[in-house]
Amino acid sequence: MSETISPEVETKLYPLLIDGKQVLAEETFDVENPSTGEIIGSVPDIDPESIQLSLQAAQRGFKAWSAKSPAERKEIILRYADILEDNRDRLISLLMEETGKPLENAEYDFGMLTTCLRFFVEEVERLDQPVLHDPDGRFLHYVQRQPLGVVVGFLAWNFPLLNVGYKLGPALAAGCSTIIKPAGVTPLASLEVGYLAKEAGIPDGVVNVITAGNHVVTEGLLESDIPELVTMIGSTRGGLEVMKSSCTSIKHFSVELGGNAPVIVYPDADVVEAANKIVDLKFANSGQVCVSPNRCFVHESVYERFLEAAAARAGRVNMGPLINEKERSRVIGLVEDAIVNGANVVTGGKALEGDGYFMEPTILSEVACDMRIAKEEIFGPVLPVIPYSDSDDEIALANDTEFGLAAYVFTKDMQKGLKAARDIKSGSVCVNEPHYSVQLPHGGLKQSGVGKDCSRYSIAEYLTLKRVSVLVD
């Protein structure tokens, strides 16, 4: 049975947010700081009753929020972004505690939340609702966009607030209500973001934030016919389970799932510049990034020079820990498997002693495509570098994966770069510099997901497309 508590109570227990109220549950689970292993708070393990309450609250919230004019919603959302900025230091500090991120990384994570809120509230005004041609001249036809409904979002732990922004931004701008479930290992800053929604004037039930210690209890969210859209950022296996559980009624899906991003470094590339950019992206967020380079194909003629430059750059990176011991052990296991099967350690390769779940930035050479580390998503600070020759089909090597989220190409030959961008089967291809922005669509092909985050293509996921025909003559 759930109970309501007053917002003034300040403890290490962070309540759920349901229908504008802070709610507890009988069971809780702890959240730890991966830099130290210390417990920094606890959160409720939601029960089935509260799952149903959140669905009903979101249903009521949708009616209230979608009834407001776009201008009214814009004013409230921009106020919400300002309130979040007023609480910036506190939220960033909490984010650093629950993720172990260095300050610069946490600032980026938080900044993307407010950027998304402000971007989508402007982008929704630019959506076209075109008049359609009638060949007989008898009808006026036009397209009407309307809020889709209740949105359920399951989020990953690597960028907690960025991920909230990717879902909350378009949902609120479109006029939808939300039930957000942040990852169980990093829920604290996301809950605090939810608590501030009421202060901004967002109606009760529009933003609900829940936590769960296991996925079984949240299946009630998916099996319900109340949600219109189920969206997720996570693993491919997790995405498949979410989609299966949701198929009790017709729903929309937008899921960004696993990646195994290839990099191709052609012999004509600026090798040092390529190595620096690849290393910077690889070890960002300790390699816990869905678009992180996972298989780095370097032409044999520049292979040794690339390894030397990459190792030098890796020695200067500033990394936080992996999220927990389970993840660190998994990544170390991939490295050990690669070494047993013939890979060489250029730098790193070991867990660091002491508190927290730190690991050395690691570069492996002589990696083969059939090794586990080249087939599985690493999601950790390991860069496998694979040599290729003129006799190899580098595009086929890049495409030899079930995933298709991101890819990178380095070359001075733009014809070669454009051809690679055309032929690589991936949701995004960056030539000569990795680049991501809220204005650009982000999503995968193959087993890396369906739908898009960011850009005008994302907000379309949260809106209906209705054709209206009016007899004129």
From TrEMBL:
Keywords for the protein's UniProt record, in alphabetical order: Oxidoreductase
PROSITE patterns, A to Z: ALDEHYDE_DEHYDR_GLU
Domain of life: Bacteria
UniProt GO MF annotations: oxidoreductase activity, acting on the aldehyde or oxo group of donors, NAD or NADP as acceptor
Active site, UniProt feature: 256
SUPFAM superfamilies in alphabetical order: ALDH-like
Statement: the UniProt record of this protein carries the keyword Oxidoreductase: yes
Keyword tRNA processing found: no
Domain Aldehyde dehydrogenase: 27-468
Similarity-based family: Belongs to the aldehyde dehydrogenase family.
Name this polypeptide is given: Aldehyde dehydrogenase family protein
Species for this entry: Pelagicoccus mobilis
Phylogenetic lineage: Bacteria, Pseudomonadati, Verrucomicrobiota, Opitutia, Puniceicoccales
